[in-house]
What does this fold into?
Amino acid sequence: MELCMKGMGVPLLYFLFNIIATKFDCCIGHSPKALCRKEEREALLSFKRGIYDPSNRLSSWTNDECCNWKGVHCHNTTGHVLKLNLQWDLNQDQGFLGGEISSSLLDLKHLHHLDLSYNKFGGLHIPKFFGSLSNLRYLDLSHAGFSGVIPDELGNLSKLHYLDIEESHHDLNAKDLEWISGLTSLKFLDMTGVDLSKASNWLQVMNKLHSLSVLLLCSCELPAIGPLPHVNFSSLLTLDLSFNDLSSSSFDWFADLSSLTALNLEYSQIHGLIPSSLRNLTSLGFLDICGNNFAPPIPNWLYHITALEYLDLGFLGFESNNFHGIGNLTSLIYLDLSYNALDQVEIFRALGNICSFQLSKFSYYRLGKSLKFLSVRGNQLSGSIPDSILEECRSLVHLDFSENQFSGQIPLSLGGISSLHYLNIGNNFFKGIMSEKHFANLTNLEELYATPNLFTWQVSSNWTPPFQLRKLCLADCFIGPQFPAWLQTQKYLEELRLQNTGISSAIPAWFWTTSCDVVDLSQNQITGVIPRIHYSSRVYLGSNNFTGPLPQISSDVTELILSNNLFRGSLSPMLCQRRTDKAVNLLEDLDISGNLLSGELPNCWTYWTGLTKLDLSNNNLTGHIPNSMASLFWLGSLHLRNNHLSGDVPVSLKNCSSLMVLDLSENEFTGSLPAWMGNFSGKFIKMFSAHEQIVYTPGLMVLVLHSNKFNGSIPLELCHLDSLQILDLGNNNLSGTIPRCFGNFSRMVKQLNSTSSFHLHNDHSFSLGSIDTATLVMKGAEYEYVESLGLLAGIDLSSNKLSSAIPEEITGLHGLIFLNLSHNHLQGKIPVKIGDMKSLESLDLSMNRLSGVIPQGLANISFLSYLNLSYNNLSGKIPSGTQIQGFSPLSFIGNPELYGAPLTGDFGEDGKPKGLIPDNDDGEDSGWIDMKWFYLGMPWGFVVGFWAIMAPLAFKRAWRHAYFWFLDEVKYKLLGWCL
It folds into this structure.
């Protein structure tokens, strides 16, 4: 887990790792004198037969001399296998291992080093027989895909010095850690990500390990820490308890860890004052207490731990006066003060003192230690950046001033920090010009972030920067109108983000051949044609003025956003070209919405089986949905809105069983609503048989079929969609009743929150509101919901021919935000319990045949901001209440027997209207019929009025001449008056 130990802690840990890992390798090698033992060779071959090895990593395991096999290390003299190193190595571009682990490894009697880390054993349990490898000194099973309970048999490895079983997502767990007490020689233990929530004895067990030097228990869901009467593991050097809930724990025993050099309590939910027991840890070089709920002040004793080199006090919310003593920490190399309430630039004076001391003669023998990492991100610092901090801290490698309120010009002294690799000045109010002078000496700069600010980027057209950037983000700064020519000099650029920078020229041809991995040029006015996208994997070119046909793309592209441009033509040339290199297309996200594309949907989707999101909405596409779309098994989001697609929704689409968002609105689809859509419910799917990897798909969450020509009744099968939170079937020709089983929509019962997420097949975390959109009618208008979509729940069945009563079961959907049943033939009363729907913000029941009184509970829905009950047959007094009486009278008109505020009129002392109530014998739906006749008469009135004037002019020549002569006279008089 990258979150657990970071920054300067990593070198510290690697130092400890190397001591332990290399101590036993003195007799290991590939000596020509070492002869492979037959019984051990057979054991390795038996092990290989159980392994799934799709990339042939073990291809060298064929000849008789097993000591020369890849990953196998033998004793130089005896030939015994001592080390089996089969971890996955990204740098060597080798594949994962999986499958079964054979017990034949027990025949490797002298094995003392086993590394299976970073493979994919697909949920396999850690083999119990590992506990019988009695000579093991080193065991690394981290991130190898193991799951289940850690076997107690590992406690038999009394010679073990190094144990790493770090795992993600809490796939591994342990209910009792007593077995660890048998590891009497253990020096290093990493159980990061292991679920230890039920291991209440974890601290008492760890305290028995006298030799333990490194203990990493990040994100283990540790139970609260109780008192520890006597500390036995006083030789501990590194302790990581970060990302646990230690809110009700005792930390007095920390005072006895006098040898501790690294302590990580990041995001441990600790309350109250910073534990005073830390003051005894005078040897600390690494301290991370960020993201806790400490109360101020920061104690003075912390600023007297002068050995500190790494200090993270971020995300504490402390004000400036808590950091005045920080200038005493003259050994600091890494300092993070992000997301506090710093509002005084005086903090830079203290930091300047650190830098000036480190450069002084008093620090001559300090082996070149100097402040290299500084972050004040997310504070309230304002004014100009003092030149002093930039002039004195010339050894900085990482500098982050982002998300503050800095203003004025960017100091030229910034360009003097030649060691700088990372610079972030984004989200401030800098203005003026950023020119070549600011970068004069930044020869080591690799990452530059300056978005957004108010300055103008101004360099000469032939400028050659002194640096070679890897990442550049200047979004929302003014760079245009020309595309930056100096980018051609950047040979190692991996990420380029220049969205909304005022570029309006065409992109030069050389740019499309660069190897930049991430390109974001969206929200500009860039013109021209895109020839081909060669090497980039994530490309965002939306909201520009690109023209011509869609570009060809390489198989390496994973995200392609071309929305809101002027592309024309068919989809087929881009999608249906067969690859001669037989490369697998990696595309996952394709958005070509809002263009001028035409023609039919191509029938070649079998080439793009990795797609998880497809958006072709707002084009001019025609025809049917092709059957080949059924091959998009992992498709989670499909948007075909606002095209001219027609026909039935093909039954083959049900094979897209991972769908979470389906929007087919504003097309010409016909037939009945597909009952098979009810199969899109949450399920676990076995992905690869070789790895037995199980993934979860949550099921259909958003279904929008608005404005089509569907007919028939609403199928009851839709009620099986237990994850559904938005259902829009409005503006169709549906008939029948509203199914009572709509009350089964369990996701609409409780109020939603934006933290709900799901893991997709590519192990990406999916949050509905963060990556998807939907266009919905709410509060009488059409809105596009983006970031808030994950919080939205609603039903729209408007403008159909639904009849009968509103089912009482709908009122049990307490999480519903909007409900639109308008323009139907619904009868009966408004459900009495509608007041229980406390989350409702928009309710539209207009243009129906509802009768009876308005339930009093409707007045108690405090979030209700839009209400329309007009043109029904409601009667009685409108319920009293601040909320409901604040609505316009238009919300209630067309109900002749309805009275009370906000409707105006002459009322008696009893609140009822004086005089006769207008008779309604003409029909219970006369109100909405009159409105329809009004709208139908409007176009006829326009036609008659238009031709009453134009017809005489067309057939009477004299009238026509007189009319135009009159217009000329008026024109000349107006011109004469103006002159």
Observations:
- The mean pLDDT is 86.
- The longest strand covers residues 681-686.
- The chain is about 10% helix and 20% strand.
- The CA atoms of residues 542 and 927 lie 47 Å apart.
